[in-house]
Design brief:
8-stranded parallel barrel; 277 residues; globular; TIM Barrel
Length: 277
C-alpha cells in the first residue's frame, strides 16, 4: 500500500511544466473540467434521471460519464433524449461505461446518437488472471478500438484492483498496456483502485506517459476497501492533481460508490475539497 506520506514525497514527476489544479469554476483554459461518473447517483438516476441530472448541474458539475443500468445505457432515456437533456442543462455527456459483448455494435450506434466521445469497457470481456487471457483481451480491445474509430468514437478500459495481480512475475495490467495500441485503446485509470491494489499511480504515469486520458478520481477507505469522501481516505489527491500532464488526462470523473449520508451531499463535500486544494 502506498502511504499518504510516500505520495507527498513524490511531488511531481513531470517537473516544472506539470499542470496545476483545475479551476473549480471549470473555465480554466487547457485544464480538464471535473465531471462525475453517474454510477455515483445510480439509484437516483433510475428513479428520475432528468431531475437527478438537474441536481448534479446545480452543484457545478457539467461533464458526465454514464454507466449501464437495468434501464439501459441512459437510465431509461433514449440516446437522443439523454443528449438533449444534457444540452438543456449545459452539460456534456463525454463518456459511458459499457460491456464489450454481442450487442457492442448497437452500443456504438447509441453512443453516436448520444453525442458522446468515449466508450469505456467497464470489465474484462473474458475471465482469467493469466497472461494469455490478458493478451486475448488486448486483441479484442484493439479490434473494438478500430471499430469505434471508424465511427468517430474512442474506445477505452476502466480498471479495478484485480488487474494489478501478477502471473509468472508479470503484472497483468502492464500486459494489457503493452499489448494495446495507444491510438485505439484509451485507458481510464481509477486512481482509488490502483492504490488499493498496492500500486502507485505516479509509477504508471512515468512508465506509460500520456496513456491515461481519463481518470476516476476516487478516495478509498483501506480498512473497508471501499470509496469514501475526499480527504477521508488514502489517496493523496493534491499530488495526483499536480501530475495531470504526465498522465495525459483530459477528463477527470469523480466517482463515489459509498456515502456518509447521500450521494448529493458527498459530491458537494468532494467539490468543496477540490476547491480548497
Amino acid at each position: 500500500m502506498i502511504s499518504r506520506r510516500q505520495f507527498v514525497k513524490r511531488t511531481s514527476i513531470a517537473g516544472a511544466s506539470t499542470l496545476l489544479i483545475p479551476s473549480f469554476s471549470f473555465n480554466t483554459p487547457n485544464q480538464p473540467r471535473y465531471g462525475v461518473q453517474l454510477y455515483s447517483f445510480r439509484d437516483d438516476m433510475l428513479k428520475d434521471a432528468k431531475a437527478t441530472l438537474e441536481q448534479i448541474a446545480d452543484i457545478g458539475i457539467k461533464k458526465i460519464e454514464s454507466a449501464r443500468s437495468n434501464k439501459g445505457l441512459y437510465y431509461g432515456l433514449s440516446p437522443e433524449g439523454m443528449k438533449k437533456t444534457c444540452e438543456d442543462l449545459g452539460m456534456q455527456l463525454t463518456s459511458g461505461h459499457v460491456a464489450l459483448d454481442d450487442d457492442f455494435e448497437k452500443t456504438m450506434e447509441q453512443a453516436v446518437a448520444s453525442g458522446q466521445e468515449y466508450l469505456i469497457c467497464s470489465s474484462l470481456p473474458s475471465k482469467g488472471q493469466t497472461i494469455d487471457n490478458y493478451k486475448k483481451v488486448a486483441e479484442a480491445f484493439n479490434k473494438a478500438g478500430e471499430s469505434c474509430k471508424k465511427l468517430g468514437l474512442k474506445f477505452g478500459y476502466h480498471n479495478h484492483g484485480y488487474e494489478f495481480e501478477s502471473d509468472n512475475g508479470h503484472v497483468l495490467y502492464d500486459v494489457l498496456m503493452d499489448q494495446t495500441e495507444p491510438d485505439l485503446v484509451h485507458m481510464e485509470l481509477d486512481l482509488g483502485w490502483v492504490v488499493v491494489a498496492g500500486k502507485d499511480p505516479l509509477d504508471y504515469f512515468e512508465k506509460y506517459p500520456g496513456r491515461f486520458p481519463l481518470w476516476h478520481l476516487k478516495d478509498m477507505n483501506m480498512h473497508e476497501k471501499e470509496s469514501t469522501e475526499f480527504g477521508k481516505g488514502v489517496l493523496d489527491i493534491k499530488t495526483m492533481m499536480n501530475n495531470q500532464k504526465a498522465s495525459g488526462v483530459k477528463h477527470i470523473f469523480i466517482e463515489q460508490e459509498e456515502y456518509a449520508s447521500t450521494p448529493l451531499e458527498s459530491m458537494k463535500h468532494n467539490m468543496k475539497f477540490l476547491k480548497k486544494i
